[in-house]
Amino acid sequence: MKEVNSEIPEKSPLEYAVIDSRREERTGYPEAVYCQGKTTEQAEGIILRMRAQGLPVLATRVQGELAARICGRCDDARYDELSRLLTVGSFCGEEERRGLVVVAAAGTSDLPAAREALLSAEFLGSHTMMIADVGVAGIHRLFDRLPDIRRARVVIATAGMEGALPGVVAGLVRSPVIALPTSTGYGASFGGLAALLGMLTSCAPGISVVNIDNGFGAGYQANLINRLN
Amino acid sequence: MKEVNSEIPEKSPLEYAVIDSRREERTGYPEAVYCQGKTTEQAEGIILRMRAQGLPVLATRVQGELAARICGRCDDARYDELSRLLTVGSFCGEEERRGLVVVAAAGTSDLPAAREALLSAEFLGSHTMMIADVGVAGIHRLFDRLPDIRRARVVIATAGMEGALPGVVAGLVRSPVIALPTSTGYGASFGGLAALLGMLTSCAPGISVVNIDNGFGAGYQANLINRLN
Amino acid sequence: MKEVNSEIPEKSPLEYAVIDSRREERTGYPEAVYCQGKTTEQAEGIILRMRAQGLPVLATRVQGELAARICGRCDDARYDELSRLLTVGSFCGEEERRGLVVVAAAGTSDLPAAREALLSAEFLGSHTMMIADVGVAGIHRLFDRLPDIRRARVVIATAGMEGALPGVVAGLVRSPVIALPTSTGYGASFGGLAALLGMLTSCAPGISVVNIDNGFGAGYQANLINRLN
Amino acid sequence: MKEVNSEIPEKSPLEYAVIDSRREERTGYPEAVYCQGKTTEQAEGIILRMRAQGLPVLATRVQGELAARICGRCDDARYDELSRLLTVGSFCGEEERRGLVVVAAAGTSDLPAAREALLSAEFLGSHTMMIADVGVAGIHRLFDRLPDIRRARVVIATAGMEGALPGVVAGLVRSPVIALPTSTGYGASFGGLAALLGMLTSCAPGISVVNIDNGFGAGYQANLINRLN
Amino acid sequence: MKEVNSEIPEKSPLEYAVIDSRREERTGYPEAVYCQGKTTEQAEGIILRMRAQGLPVLATRVQGELAARICGRCDDARYDELSRLLTVGSFCGEEERRGLVVVAAAGTSDLPAAREALLSAEFLGSHTMMIADVGVAGIHRLFDRLPDIRRARVVIATAGMEGALPGVVAGLVRSPVIALPTSTGYGASFGGLAALLGMLTSCAPGISVVNIDNGFGAGYQANLINRLN
Amino acid sequence: MKEVNSEIPEKSPLEYAVIDSRREERTGYPEAVYCQGKTTEQAEGIILRMRAQGLPVLATRVQGELAARICGRCDDARYDELSRLLTVGSFCGEEERRGLVVVAAAGTSDLPAAREALLSAEFLGSHTMMIADVGVAGIHRLFDRLPDIRRARVVIATAGMEGALPGVVAGLVRSPVIALPTSTGYGASFGGLAALLGMLTSCAPGISVVNIDNGFGAGYQANLINRLN
Amino acid sequence: MKEVNSEIPEKSPLEYAVIDSRREERTGYPEAVYCQGKTTEQAEGIILRMRAQGLPVLATRVQGELAARICGRCDDARYDELSRLLTVGSFCGEEERRGLVVVAAAGTSDLPAAREALLSAEFLGSHTMMIADVGVAGIHRLFDRLPDIRRARVVIATAGMEGALPGVVAGLVRSPVIALPTSTGYGASFGGLAALLGMLTSCAPGISVVNIDNGFGAGYQANLINRLN
Amino acid sequence: MKEVNSEIPEKSPLEYAVIDSRREERTGYPEAVYCQGKTTEQAEGIILRMRAQGLPVLATRVQGELAARICGRCDDARYDELSRLLTVGSFCGEEERRGLVVVAAAGTSDLPAAREALLSAEFLGSHTMMIADVGVAGIHRLFDRLPDIRRARVVIATAGMEGALPGVVAGLVRSPVIALPTSTGYGASFGGLAALLGMLTSCAPGISVVNIDNGFGAGYQANLINRLN
Known about the structure:
Eight copies of one chain form a homooctamer.
Chain A: H1 23-27, E1 33-34, H2 40-52, E2 57-60, H3 64-73, E3 77-80, E4 85-88, E5 98-105, H4 111-124, E6 126-131, H5 139-144, H6 146-150, E7 154-159, H7 165-170, E8 177-181, H8 193-200, E9 207-209, H9 215-226
Parallel strand pairs in A: 1-2, 5-6, 5-7, 7-8, 8-9
Antiparallel strand pairs in A: 2-4, 3-4
Helix pairs in contact in A: 2-3, 4-9
């Protein structure tokens, strides 16, 4: 790690944020930073403060400029452009990862959310596998990948538009399915509402749903379940 | 046919309705009677007037009392309790039916709409087949019936809840699919809205959608397509 | 078990339903029967057919008349009036139950859904505990019960109105939280929509959500997670 | 055709997409590429891969830059700016086209969707005719064109705002009508919702509806119906 | 007029209502009584108080019991069952009526609202004419009646479902059109929302819209316009 | 007070509810009982338990049967039929009431909610005054009562339909206005949504809003403000 | 008038539009051109074609570039930047104007729509008067202007946010009120929805409503009514 | 104060606005200026006119350019960039402030609205304190600050996403809580709708709600309550 921001001392409180430093103690995992709606300065301040406190950082919805600033200051920062996810430091070493979370994505346009889910689960401690473009309109593509999907302890099924993938998957596997609706689509998809409602009303049990485009939430929950012992 | 209502002579206009007697000439099919929102007297008057003009009648959303009244007056009236569809006389004899319309229904609760579709298509001139309970949560049940579904010139795919059936079917067959959403479900299905949006946003092409629970509309459109030549 | 319906032989197919007898093989659990929207005759037929095939039955949204009919024919039927859940036979013996699913309910009016969740999880193989009336308006009631909630491998947090309970719980425990919105409330709760949206947008990670009033879905998913090993 | 992208060999899988090469076998038509939500690189990769496999390509929602890239590499690429539709190669030669699909558009602002429908139907195998600006506010313009509309085997009726055109057309012709709502309008048209709801609830039978602005879906379904034999 | 309720003297104020006795002075017309949501006692009290003050009464959404009570006490009360409109006394004698308001209704199910509009306009001072069942699905029925519609100074066009009638009419006549959406329909008509949105977004100018099922509002506005001089 | 339920001893916990006996200590006021969604037995049990603990009770949405049961057991129970509000015992004696809360109601149909607000504020410690039927359609009725309204320390302004009353009042008085939307209305009032949105978006400052028909919430908040010192 | 576009001859049809040249004959007024959603070329073509046919033009939602082009070619073009309304030529000379349409606007932000209404009514044949910033939050400003408002034959009342102005005005005047909701506001105004619903559900009769921001529609209808004779 | 705009004399009326100079007399506070939807010229004109009349100005939603113009002309203008709030002159001197309004904000992204609330309350006459980043996901952060929150006469609780903060706070304090929902969030937060509905349906009494992102409204109402005496 590079020397972090010397102007932001560890102890003095930030006026715009309170680092929840006891979160890991309560829940097993450190706080993540949701950057949308924060100014670049605020987000940068929070991330650097967490680093100064020795906390690993997982930040979501990180725009390019903020990513560049953080990567310029922290050697161990990693930025994924497609999902706009940034990590600084590590929470769980590769060798400590356990189980397998499979992320099945219905279409290419669902990959940003899917990848946010995958990278989040990985950061928090799961082995992961991406299975892209297995939407139900060409269902044999899903069946071709069933053996891989069935190896998962937890499946994240991602789709926009009608959001039918989780329901079909849940009828075929023994593991819990986390349904991740995306805002992919137009017209009557109403920004992901169609997918969200479809996933909530699926007649297959074994599904629970996170917010539209909430890849981080899906990955977090999948990892939590995956690491239950 | 029994002697019809002698108090309602053929010629004098009804004050609450205008029989669209030229509809068949313009569109190839006679007018149907949608009974919901009409008083029993109004619906009865319209049906008897059509009979008096020699028109065959297909009436939808027919409550028991109205059905009993009509069946008591017209020998050739047939009432289906599950779908609340009533026919009087016939538009197309059995021997004149053509092609095959398959109605695939996701669950038992979808049968009222599915049956309205099937009986409508049959009345208007199609051979039909019902394939019940082939929802995507147990997708092998759908695959077991694929040979039958593939025999159809037109498929009507009916589902409530997440409404995923039409999208899966459309990816597996060569015929056009009419998607019929139903109000089956609760909570986030919002009276069939989830199914409707799901069907409209399906990523599989070859689907077009009718109103929630509009079995008649699905059957009419399927028959129209089926009989194109 | 009493002698089941001799008129419904095991082999001949029902015209309105296809028992998904291979579901347990694929997913580890047998099919459940959602009774709303089915006629009493249809629901009864399906349940008896499943019994005739030796399948244990979990049926939801069972009205009193149907429950009485089934209980009159099957000695091992059990009906819970508050949640309208009916079981016939058992899938998992008491001694085979594992882990602990805690159901935390915000208010008394949430108990029907909460109990559907609890009984479902129990039927499928989990030890369970109900913690009632711990809504966030009197948050000390929740804190009083935290030791019990923290013993759970999986928490189901149930609430209507603003649906804030899951978010608060998820910030206090290490286990995954299944959020179960209920239709409790009036006005701007819009039949559970407020609770549903609140749970989906919770800023605490570790939450995934099921449909409004879908106690069965919550219990099923919680049990699935609880029994992962 | 120019030499296609030599860096994207035919055999190695794309990590972000799975070409559904068996789609034509199952449904009679090749997969189309929906470009919105895909990065330019992803869309380009998919299109070139399909060309490398000898598949004809129909791509929708193609931005100018992507179109320029593809047209620069493939001699047989054709781009229509108004509808943003791109084709590469041909699926059905002009001489093989059959039947007639008429696209009736209510207003000038509906032409992008209308043209997407027309070009899609043409690409897939139908003769087509555009009839523009025949909205119901000046209904004589529609009547002037009725002879042409009546020549169609299938009519696509396109409208935004109140979406009344399909209902009026369906009462005047013998062919099935595919209703294509557009997002034309403002205020209470809510991005096409008013038109969509209007078309779904039309009291004229013989209509089925596709998603808002889904010209491709309308054209695909119309061609499917048109070519039934 | 019979002797009105002697227990409700003219002068003492009602605790639940304030008769707006200066309304006619300000607006030219007396207050109407909207009875839905009032107890029978409250509605009766208000009506009798108005009569005691010598005001003519037009009351809407009047249930049978209330109507019977009022008709039992006031000789000059008139009740129309279909529209649930009640009048007591007269505001404008038949000979003082002016102009012509035509009420065109799309279907039989729209008649309750249409009739509320017609009777309201008549009570307030307009000659009226009902033209029933001229919905756009059989547009020639509308054309058959155009000469009558064109005689109107103001047209009220009533429709449920897709609500297309006002837009078509407004393109054919010189008079202003008051669009009256009704809750006729099911599914995606969402209680009249589809019709309402359709009327608001009509591309024909010369239309303004009242609330769903607000026949009184339509009739009031039409009469106001009709009697402008 | 009569002898309360001897079968429900003070100490043993209820399984369906936890009396928040420390609420008064934290917030200054005891818990209220919302009875909708509770069985009669549950609501009765909670109320009697609170009485057994010496807590005064304010219960809302109380159906007649429950009211009769409680009034039969507790001498100091008072039930208001219009608002369905029940009190048992008293929290604040008449002589201890302070300040003045004026409840202004737009129409007669808004009185159930208005009265729930008034009785709640009174029970909790405020002097109150009801000003009925001063909706903005006859604005002079409001001006006639302005002197009374201006005497209030807090105004509750209640309205259904377009909900304009609070905005007009807030522009005329110096006290804070609590806006209470009601579900009065039909069609586009969507169960109070129109009034709610209108009140939230009022351009007059000095307004804050409670849930649709939440008279208790309005009265509670008004009393809280009124008694600030 | 400058020489108009010689490249667009009068007779050859435009492929993207059909000038409704018989509209004036049917409805008394020429067609207007709604420019949003049309390309600049299409809008320009339509306007110039209408000019070539000698038709006066009223065009709405005209962007600056289009306005500049038209004004560069037609001497008698007039563009109002605030409302984006463009006229070319005149339909009704100043001396032929009749009656008075008053446009009352609640706030400064409502002026674009208000001005579109005013200029439209003027172009079509009415005398007009703008009364700005008379929203109900400062109701005395409205009362100050009542004498002017009462001089109108028709009032257009414009408001965003809670949209209360039309209801208050309609209770104070004898003329019909056209309610024009605007998209002014944020949050729960949902793009004008709050104002729209408020106006539709107003308890004052004598109001009818046009689409959100549809100043042209309001002005057209007001002029139509104003000029009735 | 610098010399203000000499071109805008005090007396001549603005054509686009009417300064409500009697507002303070009626309500105790001067009019505020909502700048969104006004042109820079209009907003500047209104502000300078108010200054010319000696009125203090609080302006909201002020863009940078407008702020710069005003600050360039008025020495006593103060602009807060985060909340886009501008004040010119003072209404209540620091020494005249009374009581304490605490603004509790759930997250960093809620600070723009929170700060608008705080600065508004301060300008109008309250002492204020900001307590940032105390959302319910890390509830101990809220408990750490409870002593400060309990010192407030009025609490403003601000949150986006699920909006749970006000309900939790209201169960812990004796003062009224003004709930301020923000548009922070994505997907199912639907621009603040989830937070708004959550706050309206909170089961804790003692809460009333303002519009999404309406910091000014919250601060105004809180100050009004705080200064009641």
